[in-house]
Write a structure and sequence with these properties.
Largest sheet: 10 strands, mixed
Cofactor: [4Fe-4S] cluster
Helix content: 25-40%
Structural class: alpha/beta
Radius of gyration: 21 Å
Protein name: Radical SAM core domain-containing protein
Subcellular location: Cytoplasm
Distance between the termini: 26 Å
Shape: elongated
GO molecular function: 4 iron, 4 sulfur cluster binding; metal ion binding; RNA methyltransferase activity
Keywords: 4Fe-4S, Cytoplasm, Disulfide bond, Iron, Iron-sulfur, Metal-binding, Methyltransferase, rRNA processing, S-adenosyl-L-methionine, Transferase, tRNA processing
Oligomer: single chain
């Protein structure tokens, strides 16, 4: 369901040989509970607020203003190692290390740049897992520059939507708070400019890792200083979580991956739909709008010959009108991935679908296609580097990754 699964679309020369995908995308899915990682700990600086860092400084026998310096080092200078906190006293740095503290930044394992400037990064996490994040630079008609970071919330994804490369690569674990935040900092560092927008549309289902996602969201807003209205949280739908998200009354956008106008078709595209029927999702989205006054966006991936006809558009419009107003539909022409039976629809079919919605007073837009030549469909680049599909709770089983030169 990731943004870059949908936003990339012109093949260039492949720098990396693709590997066969071995997990069936049609398997039935339940919503798993993911255990806390054995190696997860609270001694990570990244993700802490300025007040928390001030208290940490005091706990280690320092003046509280040292916490403000720590905050600046983490979020402004983006320093990756305590050894490089050069403006802090050596004794303080030593105390931090001795107490087991670390910054919580991961090295870039691979970077691939597309012709349109889109960059995909693979970050190598502490347990040697690879996670994707994407930087998307855009200039509007007025010349203003915007940089969007598409961030992952899980290593892989357990939901296995039939068109998505991430699910085909398997699932390992949830990301921790700092592992989400560091993706944004890595994009800023690479582009040498501030990230203006963040979309939780990378690898994984954010609602299955809601606690860490909300913590990362708060840090990105308060500490990295990205406005809430400049962030989007995407979900294919997990029971009870939309209500939970609504209770936080965020000003960010909720994007729900719908992909079909009826339950029967949706089940063939999104296996988890069997556990969370369409009418239940629509009820929760209506309640979300009433609770937050924030318009819900529906993501709709157009699959040629599957869900892209004018009849499907009419049925979708009727569904949305049935559940009220205040919705927007984001149409996403399918981004082809190796091993998929799905095809990208013709432009004429996309235009007809959009016109059918708008003639029925449903606002719709077609997402611009970006960065296909960078394997930017979510999960593609990770799968190409990964020797075998991920297995949950077996993080030590990943085989070593090949060393390859950066392409950017």
């Amino acid at each position: 369901m990731a943004l870059l699964h949908h936003t990339c679309s012109v093949p260039l020369a492949r720098a990396i040989r693709s590997r066969a995908l071995t997990i069936s995308s049609r398997a039935a899915v339940t919503f798993p509970s993911v255990k806390k990682l054995p190696h997860a700990d609270s001694h990570v600086l990244l993700g802490m607020s300025e007040l928390e860092l001030q208290q940490l400084a005091a706990d280690l026998g320092q003046e509280k203003y040292r916490g403000k310096q720590l905050h600046h080092l983490l979020y402004k200078r983006k320093v990756k190692d305590i050894e490089d906190f050069s403006n802090l006293p050596q004794a303080f740095r030593r105390n931090l290390r001795d107490a087991g503290w670390r910054v919580g930044r991961s090295p870039v394992h691979q970077a691939v740049t597309a012709a349109d400037g889109t960059v995909k990064l693979l970050l190598k996490l502490e347990d040697n897992r690879l996670v994707e994040t994407v930087g998307i630079p855009v200039k509007d008609d007025k010349g203003s520059a915007r940089l969007t970071a598409c961030v992952s919330s899980q290593v892989g994804c357990p939901l296995r939507c039939s068109f998505c490369a991430t699910g085909k690569g398997g699932f390992s674990r949830n990301l921790q708070r700092h592992e989400i935040i560091e993706q944004v900092l890595a994009i800023e560092e690479l582009f040498q400019q501030r990230v203006t927008n963040v979309v939780f549309m990378g690898m994984g289902e954010p609602m299955l890792n809601l606690k860490a996602v909300l913590e990362a969201h708060q840090c990105l807003n308060k500490d990295v200083q990205i406005g809430q209205r400049m962030m989007t949280i995407s979900t294919v739908g997990v029971p009870n979580t939309i209500k939970k998200l609504a209770s936080h009354k965020l000003q960010s956008t909720l994007a729900v991956s719908l992909h079909a106008p009826n339950q029967k078709l949706r089940e063939t595209i999104v296996p988890s739909a069997k556990s969370y029927p369409l009418h239940a999702i629509m009820k929760d989205c209506t309640d979300y709008f009433q609770e937050t006054s924030r318009r819900v966006t529906f993501e709709y991936t157009l699959l040629a010959g599957v869900n892209d006809t004018v009849e499907h558009a009419i049925e979708l419009a009727e569904l949305l009108h049935e559940w009220g107003r205040g919705y927007h539909v984001n149409l996403i022409p399918f981004n082809p991935i190796e091993g998929s039976e799905y095809r990208r629809p013709y432009r004429k079919a996309v235009a007809a679908f959009e016109a059918a919605l708008e003639s029925r007073k449903i606002t719709a837009s077609v997402r611009q296609t970006r960065g296909l030549d960078a394997s930017a469909a979510c999960g593609q680049l990770r799968n190409e580097f990964q020797k075998s599909p991920l297995v949950a709770d077996n993080s030590d089983s990943l085989q070593s990754q090949p060393d390859m030169p950066l392409l950017c």
